[in-house]
Design a protein that fits this description.
The protein has 3 helices and 5 strands, in the order αβααββββ. The chain has about 130 residues and is α+β, with helices and mostly antiparallel strands. Strands 1, 2, 3, 4 and 5 form a 5-stranded antiparallel β-sheet that branches. The longest helix has 17 residues. It is about 20% helix and about 45% strand.
Length: about 130
């Protein structure tokens, strides 16, 4: 009886080891940046208080003499994996929204620069390259 049980256990372990599988995972860091809110910010007019009310606290504040720069980030990471027999193939795509706001010595927005790409993160396997096709 023990012999049959051991054979069944080994057989079940082999089936589990050799059975293909796949997975998807998603991770994000910070709060998304919305283009509509960014469009409402006007260099030469928007103040630090207005920016705080619209976007919340920045991730980083850099002092530039009497001026300041604020940085906002939002990151999305998508991962896809495929297991065939004992080989696992994984691909991770990380895309980021980044916003820099530069304020003059009076706290008025002087300039802004942004890259909004977090929504472009995709699930794909290692042999594909979705971003190369764009």
């Amino acid at each position: 009886m023990k012999h049959r049980s051991a054979i069944a256990g080994v057989g079940l372990a082999l089936v589990a080891l050799l059975t293909p599988g796949c997975f998807l995972s998603r991770n994000s860091v910070n709060v998304p940046l919305h283009a509509e809110k960014l469009a409402q910010l006007t260099p030469g007019q928007s103040t630090q208080a207005e920016v705080l009310a619209s976007l919340g606290a920045p991730i980083d504040v850099v002092q530039l003499g009497f001026r300041t720069a604020w940085r906002y980030d939002y990151t999305v990471e998508k991962r896809a994996g495929l297991t065939l027999f004992i080989i696992t193939m994984i691909n991770t795509d990380v895309q980021q929204d980044r916003l820099w706001l530069f304020f003059d010595e009076k706290g008025v927005l002087a300039a802004a620069g942004s890259t909004i790409d977090a929504d472009k993160a995709v699930y794909e396997l290692p042999w594909t390259n979705e971003h190369a096709q764009q």
